Q: What sequence folds into this?
């Protein structure tokens, strides 16, 4: 059943992004930023953990999960270290995505050239 | 011909994209990525016995790797024109924005090209993500503690 929910949730998030892209002048860059902020906001409202539990990978594959990771690790940092923890813990979980993107892109850039 | 008529003419002459089809394609591609991701998590938890949280982090890394490799091979932009937002909203879009900048600016040198422009597109995601998470976290701490 989680498979169906994952399909429907990830699909509707992408369909909503497509509706925004087609009907406004926003670029894909605007929309990914918007979704990240939306992910942090949903996490702030306490909804995103429930989404991950219910929709499984449907919620974790989206870019909004990046916002969720930022917010939840900042909050976790606060509980561990106080105000300092917000600063030091902010990138804790999303370090995975950022470091991954940097390492893979750098390696790829060394071996490939732009196709244009 | 006044400006209003001209605008109407341009609107009629410019190619009409089939919006409903775009939405359905984005829905199916995005949904498929979610479905396959769920399958990948199931596969990892069943065969290696790791927790769901750890499996979803491996999934995140795998999506970034796939996005980067397809960008490098030049498939991603062709696919994006056909598959629309289905590829941009999953984490593959983040990887694509980093990798495409890295590839495009490589020819301007490793420091002034590749290094300076690495986060040209993905920077906004990181910046606004951190700013919103920071202020939301401060609000939450002030409200609830």
A:
């Amino acid at each position: 059943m989680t498979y169906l929910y994952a399909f429907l949730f990830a699909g509707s998030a992408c369909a909503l992004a497509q509706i925004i892209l087609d009907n406004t002048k926003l670029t894909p860059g605007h929309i990914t930023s918007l979704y990240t902020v939306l992910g942090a906001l949903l996490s702030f409202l306490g909804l995103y953990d429930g989404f991950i539990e219910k929709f499984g990978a449907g919620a974790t594959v989206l870019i909004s999960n990046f916002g969720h990771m930022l917010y939840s690790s900042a909050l976790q940092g606060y509980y561990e270290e106080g105000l300092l923890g917000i600063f030091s813990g902010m990138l804790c979980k999303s370090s995975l995505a950022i470091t991954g993107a940097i390492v893979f892109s750098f390696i790829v850039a060394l071996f490939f050239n732009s196709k244009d | 011909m006044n400006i209003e008529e001209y605008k109407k003419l341009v609107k009629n002459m410019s190619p009409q994209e089939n919006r409903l089809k775009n939405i359905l394609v984005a829905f199916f591609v995005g949904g498929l990525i979610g479905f396959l991701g769920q399958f990948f998590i199931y596969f990892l938890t069943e065969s290696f016995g790791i927790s769901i949280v750890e499996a979803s982090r491996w999934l995140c890394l795998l999506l970034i790797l796939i996005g980067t490799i397809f960008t490098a091979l030049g498939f991603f932009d062709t696919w994006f024109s056909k598959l629309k937002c289905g590829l941009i909203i999953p984490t593959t879009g983040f990887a694509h924005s980093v990798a495409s900048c890295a590839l495009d600016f490589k020819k301007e040198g490793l420091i002034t090209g590749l290094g300076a422009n690495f986060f040209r597109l993905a920077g906004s995601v990181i910046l606004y993500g951190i700013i919103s998470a920071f202020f939301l976290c401060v609000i939450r701490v002030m409200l609830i503690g």
Residues 17-143 of chain B form one domain. Chain B has one domain: 17-143.
